[in-house]
Amino acid sequence: MNTVKPSSPGVSLRMSRQARRDTAPEVAVRKLLHASGYRYRLNVRVPDMPRRTVDIVFSKAKVAVFLDGCFWHGCPLHATSPKSNAEWWREKLDKNMARDTETTEHMRNLGWTVLRFWEHETPAEIADQVAAAVTAGAPSGTPWP
Prior knowledge:
Number of strands: 4
Radius of gyration: 17 Å
Structural class: alpha+beta
CATH architecture: 3-Layer(aba) Sandwich
CATH class: Alpha Beta
Low-confidence stretches: 141-145
Mean pLDDT: 86
Number of domains: 1
Order of helices and strands: HHEEEHHEH
Strand content: 15-25%
CATH topology: Endonuclease, Chain A
Largest sheet: 4 strands, mixed
Helix content: 40-55%
């Protein structure tokens, strides 16, 4: 159980206001996919896992796309460790990464293709990889995009 508290109410408030959806990287990728004719659903709940959502979902092709923030999800290139209240942050960020792994495994066990990208990756490259996965996962006879 997390017994350490945030360093201050101000920090807690500021961090709680961070965008959880419709971030700039998400919007950029979605615009590219939509312009290419792909249609998708947004912020879909993960089956049998409360309080977890997939950023972009292609239901027919069973492709789930997550665009993860470098700080919140532990990017190996850009993750930082706050010095103030370090124990609380380490615990918080470790839980986020464990939850990501658990969610990915759960979705894959349900037969989904799970794609995870970092916020710093190029939107065009992400869109290309997503389009390839959607096309490969499309049921036969279903036109894609």
